[in-house]
Please model this.
Amino acid sequence: MTAASEKPVVRPARESDLPQLVDMLDKVDPGMVTMPQTEADMAARIEQSLGAFEKPSGTPEGEAYFLVLDEDGRLAGTSSIFTNLGATRPFYSYRISRQSKLSPETSSKVELDILHLVNDYHGDSELGTLFLVPEARGGGRGRLLSFARLMLIAADPIRFGPRVMAEIRGWVDETGKPPFWEAVGRHFFGMDFNDADGLSARDSRFIADLMPRYPIYVDLLPDEARAAIARPNTGAAPAKALLESQGFRYNSQVDIFDGGPDIDAYTETISIVRDAERASAGEWAGGDPAKGLLSFADFKRFAVVQTGDDEARGAALERLGAGASDEILFYPLGSKSA
Model:
């Protein structure tokens, strides 16, 4: 899968993909809670996604769009978008605020960071399930999988609401344990991190039942836990950087389990959504070769390929399967978006 000559395409998952997707689960980190964990769950996710792509354009209602990276019939990765967070269950995070106190009598000033349990992402869309099998990593595939979701949003932004967010995996120590969880969550949930994280993907009611109802002062936490707040896992840092290149920013909210940073952007300000060129394939084909992302603008035919500056535009359109009258989107990849 590492040959430079291969030309992957990102497309919606199909029912026929189920066996390969189930085989892929053995390679997925159990901490990726947005990935279905069983064959039945995977089949349900594919069915949910197919229904989402078939729906007419309109405001989001809790859809899941499930994409796969296909290299000549071999699946090498996945990515997803989940819409209308909080529609059926709360989507919790910690918001960090700073409190400043001054004592004139002692001429002392103290500034403290405080964690507040919030449900601020209600109605937003979430980017998730970004996964590549180890043997396929490199060669720009991760960027293609990640940015394919943004090309999907660019095709019909109204389907995704005014804001898009992503949870970035938090820092773990040399033993594989998240210091933030060990200092905070473990005391309230009485279970291992993976058990709580997995349960949250299925039912978040236990979070409201068990999490402390009062703010938590960061200064009371151990040094290791404080240092882990908003610090991405080493493996997740590249994914964070890709989204930051598109305008996503950390907004002082973190995951309630591992303390990883939440990043978000208003939909209309995401670079791909704002700057992708929309044209007929016939019109676009006349230009010089260009490096970028090329997709159908039609949701029911959606697919994305990456073009190169050594490939004729007509050849790229042929790989996508677009005819002259089809409407396409093209987003150039340069130094700012790479």
Observations:
- Confidence is low (pLDDT under 50) at residues 1-5.
